[in-house]
Design brief:
84% helix, 195 residues, mainly alpha
């Protein structure tokens, strides 16, 4: 059990540190006209969801709790794109072997360590992201150069202001409970908002 805990903590540390870089990969997916339209929209919706939270004070005060959901969600979205299984998806994933080769094992670690209902809730959010972000709004980032450029600027701003680095994450994330509690709170808040 300790080994699973350690594996999960190490995975989340890596995903949280690499979130700005992984968002660039999502942006490249959105921009890749060879990928299926729905995959491109999913990549755009994932970025819009992360940028739309916009609470810089909470992000700085509680960075692990604030970005844990985003890290898991973005990796699930990228996995959905990779799982398409066609030649274009394979060509795209081959451009980023450092992410896509370890992604199945990383998500398996997540799934085995998180409660099933929690993992399923994150996965369901990913599936519903384009609809939740309103398809028309998401589509503009694929079809309109000005909107695409504004999303690129948001991504650069996010990368510049991202509060997590390797030093901070080692100090702030020592136990898996930190991530699990943050995810529970996020999805409990969502359930209350829906009710």
């Amino acid at each position: 059990m300790v080994n699973v805990e350690t594996d999960f903590v190490e995975l989340m540390r890596a995903w949280l540190v690499s979130l700005p870089h992984d968002m660039k990969i999502a942006f490249d997916a959105m921009d890749d006209e060879n990928l299926a339209r729905e995959d491109r929209e999913l990549a755009a919706a994932a970025m819009l969801h992360i940028f739309g939270k916009a609470d810089p004070i909470k992000a700085r005060r509680e960075p692990v709790a604030f970005f844990a959901d985003d890290a898991v969600m973005l990796h699930l979205a990228l996995r959905r794109i990779a799982d398409r299984g066609n030649e274009d998806a394979q060509t795209f994933t081959e451009r980023f072997p450092e992410l896509f080769e370890s992604l199945p094992a990383g998500l398996a670690t997540c799934k085995s360590h998180l409660e099933k209902t929690l993992y399923d809730a994150v996965e369901a959010r990913v599936v519903g992201l384009p609809a939740a972000m309103r398809a028309k709004k998401v589509a503009q980032y694929l079809d309109n150069d000005e909107a695409r450029e504004s999303l690129y600027e948001k991504m650069l701003e996010f990368r510049t202001n991202y509060p997590i680095d390797e030093t901070l994450i080692v100090d702030k994330l020592k136990r898996s409970a930190t991530v699990i509690e943050a995810l529970r709170k996020t999805y409990a808040d969502d359930a209350r908002a829906i009710a």
